[in-house]
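ok so for the tutorial part 2 we go from a plain amino acid sequence to predicted structure tokens. step 1 is just haveing the sequence, like this:
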Amino acid sequence: IFRARSNTSVADRNARIDKSESKAAELPASWGQYSRTFVCSHSGKYKSVATKRPRQEARAKGCKEQINVCVQVVDRKETTFAVRITRCQLEHNHSLTSQAYFDLLWKKGVKKSDIIDHLMNHTDNNPTPKDVQNLVQKLKTREQRDGPSGTDKRLKKWMKQFGDVPGNVGRIFLGDVGDVGAKKVATCITLQAKHMRTLFDQFPEVLMIDTTHGTNRSKYKVFSFMAHDTFGMAMEEVKANNPAWTRLQCVLVDKDFTELSDLEKAFPGVTILLCQFHVLKYLREEIASADYGFSRSQKEQLGGVMSLLFYAITEQSTTNASSTWFI
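step 2 — the prediction. this is what the tokens look like for a chain of 327 residues:
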């Protein structure tokens, strides 16, 4: 779908010719337009004035597709003009399927009266309000039949595509929320790619469970282990699809993982260790916090004592470090 971004009228063009005293032939005023620029309806950059999460369905997507047309002289002797395309860039950065445009007006929440105006101005039809109502209902029915319209349906479709890849294992756990008989909602989602399972099969001795916030932004972990419930569904799912878990010897968790009892139940006899790096980082942030009112010297002393405690090799070293802890 194209829209006219800008245009130059014949009157403006002729006025510029007269002002510059050019010998170029003037166009008949009845022609109206001299040139036009057509851009994709997804052109431009969406600028939100809100402070919350930006709209994901914003129409402006920065598409560079553009067509420039203007009237040019093709025969100076006979003073013949023709409409020519002076620029044509047809590379889009978004989907061009028909489904992406069928329900454009409806999805944008345009009023039925505005839809009628749009159809009358851009088509040869003269629709009635009842016609528009039937059209909207038809689009809703088509969306329900041909494609997902909600988050749950999109998730189900994506999970099916993920599971169709050989070696991938994905599962959605549903649970009741609220009163008995209430609608079931997803309480846990597990994703195990073929590459992840292959690596775990080769190196199953140590499992690191990362529950740090923002792991997707950091992009530094091979595995991300998530359990939303207290029944350890995610852990049982991993065990069921990775027989190598029986060779597991150590589980390393960070400070944000709180379901230690589930770990002990799921992996009996396995050593569970707390990640030293995350604990040190957390304590340093707490010491530096202004909430406690520590002076600079107190912060330095606490930092030194904390390092002695963490890197103590023997029990006596720990006792000696503890005895120096005073404020």
